[in-house]
Amino acid sequence: MIYVWAFVVGGLICVIGQLLMDVGRLTPAHTMTILVVSGAILDGLNLYDPLIQLAGAGATVPITSFGHALTHGALMEAGQHGIVGVITGIFEVTSAGISAAIVFSFLAALVFKPKG
C-alpha cells in the first residue's frame, strides 16, 4: 500500500506544480519557489513528517522535501543552539544533498560536452 500512497502523494505534488505553470502561467523558478516554501510551511506546522510516514518517497523525493529539510534542520538546531543554530541547522541537514548535486554535476560536465 505504501507504493500507492507514494504514487498518489508524489503525483499530487507534481500536478500542483504543473497547474501552477500551466494555469497560473508561472515560470518554473516561481513554481519551484512556491513548492519549496510550501514544504517549509508544512514542516513548520508539523504536517510534513506525517506525510512522509504516509507516503515515503512520494513525499521525500519532490522539491517540497527540500523546504521541509531546511525548516526541520533549522528548528531542530535552534532549540539546541539558539539563533546560531538556525543557520547551522540549515547547512547541516542539507549539505550532503547539495554536495552530491555539485559533485555529480561536475562529473557530468566532464563526461558530456556542456552547452554554454
Automatic annotation (TrEMBL):
TM stretches of this protein: 83-112
UniProt cross-references to InterPro entries, sorted A to Z: Spore_V_AE, SpoVA
UniProt keyword list: Membrane, Transmembrane, Transmembrane helix
NCBIfam families per record: spore_V_AE
Protein name per its UniProtKB record: Spore germinant protein
Organism encoding this protein: Kyrpidia spormannii
Source lineage: Bacteria, Bacillati, Bacillota, Bacilli, Bacillales
